[in-house]
Amino acid sequence: PPTPPWWSTAVVYQVYPRSFADSDGDGIGDLRGVLSHLDHLAALGVDVVWLSPIYRSPQDDNGYDISDYRDVDPVFGTLADLDELLATLHARGMRLVMDLVVNHTSDEHPWFVESRSSTTNPKRDWYVWRGGRDGGERPPNNWGAAFSGPAWDRDTTTGQWYLHLFSPKQPDLNWENPEVRAAVHEMVAWWLDRGVDGFRMDVVNFVSKVDGLPDGVVAPGALFGDGAPHFQNGPRLHEFLHELHERVFAGRPQAVLTVGEMPGVTVEQARLLTDPARAEVDMVFQFEHVGLDHGRDKWDPRPLELRELKANLARWQTGLADVGWNSLYWSNHDQPRAVSRFGDDSPAHRVASAMALGTVLHLHRGTPYVYQGEELGMTNAVFASLAEHRDLESLNHHREAVGAGADPDVVLAALAPASRDNARTPVQWTPGTSAGFSTGAPWIGVHPNHVDVNAEAARADPGSVFHHYRRLVELRHTDPVVTDGVFALLLAEHEQVWAFTRTTPTAQLLVVANVSSAPVTLDGAELAELGGLGGEVVLSSGPAGDRPAQLGAWEARVLRRR
Ligand SMILES: O=C(CO[C@H]1O[C@H](CO)[C@@H](O)[C@H](O)[C@H]1O)[C@@H](O)[C@H](O)[C@H](O)CO
């Protein structure tokens, strides 16, 4: 059988540089800050660092708006710092995955500066320009942007409209133009020549838009049409990804990891996108499981049903069992903190629930991604005012909702569980000032619970979330069942227990976790379905001792069956 790709046994750690560690006291994390904490990552045992954008950027969307792809923004450091980080990671046997943001650039990127300068500029067609409706007075279609408002802005220079699925300072590139794709290929090759080991591709399934850019459906009460059906997973996506693979990744000395961030991608599409025979991407970030607690939208929460969550991840497991590969994540810089959203972040259950969530996710089949601070059980922010928020998505939503007549306090309350700022508070290294993140004033508030929740305390406590995650990483590195075992969900209807097996021809692991804050006793039928709770305990977050049918609150066990 073909040798499995290196990343099939890897665990990826996501660094959001702005909030990881600040080395120069300006209150903003930077590359030397990452360098100064590599011991932490090495102790955790992770194999790959995914670095959110550090490129030159006006920072309208914290770096996801790039004005120079081949340089590092001074707020994060220099190219030399990045080269040093890359060399140091490699020397420690770790790899570096960069963020590739090429659905759009910054409006301050020279490409766009040229493109907007005149309708005859050679780079005009590098972006998506249209005349507009009603003699140019109204946008070309009714699409809304991801960060509120219309997806089009009218440019004063030529009076034409340009498309921006995100902020007006993030104009979409026109991937229909082969010059654009060639420029992207060259830039990606430039980074690979510098030795980077892969790319997380930002909203890469948005690059192919449907011809004619038709209007979207306007949901009841919505201000704009939903353009997603016309720009997600578009008609030429597979072609563009395969071309990028063939032109840039194929035949490289280093085996490159590629993961496509793909809101709206389905299992069926992922079977094609991640099929090695099709040479498109290695894995995708799907969004279904991080949308189960959304009502109308992310600001309209609805209760999360465990059965739905289990069933969703199981569907991706079985869907990619014979072809392709899954990525596994609870959170990232766009999602609330895992323990607050899926666990119980009260002092009584924070540690156990963080461990249980880590256990069930890391024992699924696929490549796990750990978001900075998840290994410490960091929790959602506790902002008391709008002034403490920083993320344009949250601030724009508040302005738009209040502008449409909503009560400001009600909207502020809706930000609390869902805002991306929850993931962006500084990493808590110590119980000291600013949690050891910076000697200056942090760009966003440090969580007050850092006095207890911090890396220093976690590293010193063998029973901490940190050491549980370290053991999960170790298990993935040492036990082939974790990478290869066929997944089978058990007790699918149980409202508290998440149980499944991973089976190879010669071995089997049973994973069983109580993902609730109340103890649970399994009845005879349930125990029978599990084949009992016996077996060698490979990993457990609960108290030792033989309790054949009980699981404490948030208790997780990994048992070797054979
Ligand atoms: O799907 C995306 C794309 O995110 C990527 O693309 C965005 C634009 O580059 C960027 O803001 C994000 O940080 C990056 O991860 C998010 O916008 C998501 O829908 C939203 O944040 C959930 O509320």
Automatic annotation (TrEMBL):
Annotated InterPro entries: GH (IPR017853), GH13_cat_dom (IPR006047), Glyco_hydro_b (IPR013780), O16G_dom_2 (IPR045857)
Top-level division of the source organism's lineage: Bacteria
Pfam families named in the record: Alpha-amylase
Keyword Metal-binding among UniProt keywords: no
Keywords from the named record: Hydrolase
CDD domains: AmyAc_SI_OligoGlu_DGase
Record flagged with keyword Transmembrane: no
Domain Glycosyl hydrolase family 13 catalytic: 14-424
Protein name: Alpha-glucosidase
Upper classification of the organism: Bacteria, Bacillati, Actinomycetota, Actinomycetes, Mycobacteriales
